[in-house]
Amino acid sequence: MWALGQAGFANLTEGLKVWLGIMLPVLGIKSLSPFAITYLDRLLLMHPNLTKGFGMIGPKDFFPLLDFAYMPNNSLTPSLQEQLCQLYPRLKVLAFGAKPDSTLHTYFPSFLSRATPSCPPEMKKELLSSLTECLTVDPLSASVWRQLYPKHLSQSSLLLEHLLSSWEQIPKKVQKSLQETIQSLKLTNQELLRKGSGNNQDVVTCDMACKGLLQQAQGPRLPWTRLLLLLLVFTVGFLCHDLRSHSSFQASLTGRLFQTSGFLPASQQACAKLYSYSLQGYSWLEETLPVWGSHLLTVVRPSLQLAWAHTNATVSFFSAHYASHLAWFGDSLTSLSQRLQIQLPDSLNQLLHYLRELPLLFYQNVLLPLWHLLLEALASVHEHCHEACRGEVTWDCMKTQLSEAVHWIWLCLQDITVAFLDWALALISQQ
Q1: Which pTM does this prediction carry?
Q2: What is the pLDDT of residue 337?
Q3: Helix %, strand %, coil % for the chain, to 5?
Q4: Cα separation of 252 and 246, whole Å?
């Protein structure tokens, strides 16, 4: 074997044939593994130009080497495994070949099936890096991923999260093609969630990663909804605080700002002009409407009287000549309704009975209780007024009670506004 190995050192292609055919199958044997890895190390050291070895290592030979290099507790000693890990990048170059843009999609399924959440960290890092390289170099890898996606959700969740964390390092041209793939995966997630198939947690994780990637692909956008909500909350809070602290609109900062900016005088002037024009229009209508109404009535009255006479004659003619037909039609409807009542099933009769009773139920269960509540409320208001006014219900006492009620309503509205502001700020801070 050693003589055969020495003969293969002169040519990279022959040396790889010797190693793949004779030494790779015995790589797991403890007595032969050191010689196999030493031979491979010397072969790659003597031939740094790897282009002559392209195409020699295929997926069938490459992935056992990947497992030996990164999987713990295999038949290799830690020192041999470390040595094989150092050789792995060059083996990877030999496996991908001269045209990786047309061959990497054949490696993608095996990379994806190995990228489980339970695989070792170093191997997971290598697998995710290789999967990203497949997606960015070979366009066919994306279509392969879409086909494998429903059956490899846990592996795909790891890949999506890795793409999310390294999105800025992916070329812009590749980002556009990956955006279409991620959009397709998002639709698949929605369909899986609707059907309830697969591991629901994996689907949810994939869906969240897809949404994050699509947001990254669309670029940073201002949260206009949150900004508008924050502006509205701030404006309402400022107005409430301003009016409450100054007790009137004229003395408030808002009123003074409107006054100094000229907006308040302009609005008052506009309102005054509008009021003046409304009064002029009302006075014009008051003057012209009776005149035009009487003139229109004088013109239209003969035509209306003639139309009424023709209508009366037509109704009299129909009532005289078609009374028998109308009586027959009424008798027919009566007999038809009786026949339908006999022939209709009991369920339909019961339904009609319920429909007839529905207004009565609505009156008894809704309208009547509301009326009683209204009467009780009026009685309690009347009693409260008597108690507050000490038996003499006067207009001054009523105005006092109304002002107190309005003040109480204003305080309630302020409390509701403050509670709404606190809730909105808490919601914005959580998001």
Answers
A1: 0.51
A2: 63
A3: 85, 0, 15
A4: 5
